[in-house]
Design goal:
Elements: E1 4-9, E2 17-23, E3 26-32, E4 38-42, E5 56-58, E6 61-63, E7 70-72, E8 88-89, E9 91-94, E10 97-101, H1 102-110
Antiparallel strand pairs: 1-10, 2-3, 3-4, 4-8, 5-6, 6-7, 9-10
Length: 111
């Protein structure tokens, strides 16, 4: 069973941009694509710790601002020749509200 908590509204995030949410397990970047889809991934590139929330959003991907690694917002997997992944988090929309699965955040924090 999931407990969904409101983390903001769609209009809080600019198109092709991101905002961060502080959680017990660290910062999570919440992205909005140009087609108003929302995704959440950890805000730390596994390559050298770059802030993915400051990267460039293109389609359903984000490019790390430090060394141009590209990650899928859907799967968290590095794209192209790069290897690695970031953790993804479940989101859903309720009208304009963005909700995050709180039980998943707590399970990750307990690891």
């Amino acid at each position: 069973m999931s407990d969904w908590i409101e983390i903001g509204k769609l209009d809080d995030i600019p198109p092709r941009g991101a905002r961060c949410v502080n959680t017990p397990m660290g910062r999570i970047a919440v992205f909005r694509t140009g087609t108003d889809e929302v995704y959440a991934i950890e805000d730390r590139c596994p390559h050298q710790g770059g802030p993915l929330s400051q990267g460039i959003v293109h389609g359903a991907q984000v490019t790390c601002p430090l060394h141009n690694w590209v990650f899928s917002l859907e799967t968290g997997l590095a794209q192209g020749a790069d290897e690695g992944a970031v953790r993804t988090f479940a989101l859903k929309s309720d009208g304009e509200r963005i909700l995050m699965d709180a039980s998943m955040m707590m399970a990750v924090a307990a690891e």
